[in-house]
Amino acid sequence: MSTLDEKLLVLLAGQSNMAGRGYAGADDLVSIPRLLMIRPDGKWQPAVEPITKDRPFVGTFSASGEKITGGDPFETILPEGDQKVCGVGPGRTFGRLLAEANPEKTIGLIPCAVGGTSIAAWMPGGVDDWNAENHPFDDAVKKAREAQKSGKIVAVLWHQGETDAQRQTPDYTAKLRTVVNNFRSALELGDDVPFIAGDMASFYKENIAANIEIVDNALATIASEDKRFRCVCTKDLNHRGDNLHFDTASQHELGARYFEAFRQFTADKHSSY
């Protein structure tokens, strides 16, 4: 594989706001030139939302709530009439902007986020809080290594913390630092690969909102000590009506903010040479 043929890969990890719970508009359901995603079976396909099918309530649904299924569980079924597609996250917007900035390259998204997962689920051997058959970190590494056969990871995008804010998880900073280092080690990520995280939103209900500093302080601490760790702000973004998940417009904006953090990281790296 020549350098020219290598995909630029982006790993998407964390919980539901990285997986995405926004409702798709028409633009979310059309393919973008040179923007692909890797499926759980290792095949590549156009990155049409929802790119992260982490839970049964992601996909295409009728107005009565019935899920519309087809022969291929990894393909998006385009809605008809009053059907809706749930599952828009920030990764696809990031991928589109990365493709526009690199017109000679194909972009490959590696969707690995799992809704509702605590930081403990993102340790080696960790178990999905809601499905014991899933091992979020181990599954992500396996999928990422498969993707690396056809490209190079250029960024890790992370959004996680609602579960641990609610649980008031002790030593969250140390645990997040471990997750970051584990990804870097397992996937052999160099100094040129940023780990970019979004902070906690401002719209949560009290059971989460009362303790978001557990997560936000961890992000600030790690960013202050680690030049490869960057944060993006979400405090002015909106929820979809559930006080928990970003709406579609906010997910698009969040993807753009992740990309701006990536662009700034790249500029900083070049200016230090």
Can you give a write-up of this model?
- The protein is of the alpha/beta class and 273 residues long.
- The protein has a single domain (7-19, 90-271), classed as Rossmann fold (3-Layer(aba) Sandwich), CATH 3.40.50.1110.
- Helix content is 33%, strand content 18%.
- It is built from eight helices and eleven strands.
- It has helices at residues 16-19, 91-101, 136-147, 162-167, 172-186, 206-209, 213-225, 248-271, and strands at 7-14, 22-23, 35-38, 44-46, 59-61, 67-68, 84-88, 107-111, 151-159, 195-198, 229-232.
- The strands form two sheets. The protein has a seven-stranded mixed sheet with strand order 4-3-8-1-9-10-11, sandwiched between helices. Strands 2-7-5-6 form a four-stranded antiparallel sheet, with helices on one face.
- A hairpin with a 5-residue loop joins strand 5 (59-61) and strand 6 (67-68).
- The radius of gyration is 18 Å and the shape is globular.
- The model has no long low-confidence stretch (mean pLDDT 96).
CATH class: Alpha Beta
Low-confidence stretches: none
Helix fraction?
25-40%
The number of helical elements comes to 8
Shape: globular
Number of domains: 1
Q: Could you say what the CATH topology is called?
A: Rossmann fold
Distance linking N and C termini: 28 Å
Query: What would you report as the Rg, rounded to the nearest angstrom?
Result: 18 Å
The whole-number mean of residue pLDDT values reads 96
- Relevant CATH superfamily: SGNH hydrolase
Order of strands in the sheet with most strands: 4-3-8-1-9-10-11
Would you list the SSEs in sequence order as H and E?
EHEEEEEEHEHEHHEHHEH
Into which percentage range does the β-strand content fall? 15-25%
Q: What can be said about the biggest beta sheet?
A: 7 strands, mixed
- CATH architect. name: 3-Layer(aba) Sandwich
Query: Number of DSSP strands?
Result: 11
Kindly name the structural category. alpha/beta
